[in-house]
Amino acid sequence: MREQEAIRAPGHSEARAVGLLLIAGAGIVALSLLLPHPSGGDTGALIAIAAGMLVAGGLCFGLARLLPLWIVHLTLAAAAVATGALIYASGVAAGQYGAVFVWGTLIAAYFFPRMIAVAHLAWLLLVYAVTLALVESSAGYSVVTRWLFTAISLSVVMALTSALVARRARADLRARRFFDLSRDLLCTASVDGYFVEVNSAWEETLGYRPDELLSTPFIELVHPDERERTESESARIFQGGGQVGFENRYRAKGGSWRWLRWSASLAADEGLVYARAADITELKQIEGEREELLAEVQGLAHSDALTGLPNRRALDAQLPREMARALRNERPLCLAILDMDHFKAFNDSHGHLAGDAALRECAIAWDSELRGEDTIVRFGGEEFLVVLPDCTPEEGVEAVERLRAATPGEHSCSAGLALWDGRELAEDLIGRADSALYRAKASGRDRLVEAPSFES
Fold this sequence. Notes:
This protein is of the alpha+beta class and about 450 residues long. It folds into three domains: about 10-180; about 180-285, PAS domain (Beta-Lactamase, 2-Layer Sandwich), CATH 3.30.450; about 305-450, Reverse transcriptase/Diguanylate cyclase domain (Alpha-Beta Plaits), CATH 3.30.70.270. It is about 55% helix and about 15% strand. The chain contains 15 helices and ten strands. Helix 1 packs parallel to helix 3 and helix 13 (about 350-370) packs across helix 14 (about 395-405). The longest helix has about 40 residues, at about 145-180. The radius of gyration is 43 Å and the shape is rod-shaped. Mean pLDDT is about 85; it is low at about 1-10.
């Protein structure tokens, strides 16, 4: 697997460090002017240089995220020049202002590759050499001696710091290799809403280069439907809410959305969140397909395969609910059974396919004539049952006659209608409607017969 360096936000820490260096230099000037110090220096020049360092340092620190790395290098080089100007304005090449040189050397050795750090040190020593040549006093030492001791001291500081940084870099590289071995998306994030470090799994999963992820607020990659919840979970983590787990969708570079399952916790001493995300997109797809399949299976379990109407199993669940609703609202409930006349003879003469087509046509025609609250069920064979909530016997007769009139083609149907008395069981109500249907067929078919009141 391809190895890559640990990538963090480029230039941010370096810019902040240089900004603090300039601010500290201004502070040293202010302190030196308040405490006893050698006379003869240009106080006005010192104050002006310190003010410039303070402003430049504040801008560098405040705009750290926006500054390219070459600006940081240029600012650090300018800090060396400003320090030389401070020494020159003080009139004495000794004392507290040289501390800025030491800090500048530490920053260069800590943040930059060795060759670039050496270049900064060489520039600093050049500036100091020019300063020593121009300053009024070298405080009792020859210019060469003072410069030589300074060069040796700063070189030792740089060598030791570079060695420590190299040792840490090797340890970081070993950790990084383990970091990148994970197939999970590992990262650290800061309170300002940016990733600080990511592993290679991010690029493999979402397609973004690490620098693209580090320069983009992570909330911008979250699906709009999950942004509010993600912001809420992030706030809870940064408030010390312990380990938090949640799911959201992240936009991949190609525009698609990937489901991520997160586990995150706060490292309070660092002010960073350590998080792990697993790509569960395929799992979500499988879950969605399973839910669709379950819904389809449930639909098939309660639907008649031939006509698409609810079946007897659906009726067993719905009719008791309608009876309870009618009783609760004190409203009438009617039930009708329709039977296609001479269907067996039609089936025998035209074939089962034609018979199936006739059943489907009747189902569609009758279903289209019902009210929204009515339900028609294929009861079995050529029989269909109709539940008519909030329907008086007179309205029930009108509804059933409307269905009979809508019977398609050369077909006719017989029907039985029963009014629920509010006490009988569902099977008794169905039985009375079925008895009425039997009388309709026995009376010559193609007619509706109403069931008499229930007799206990």
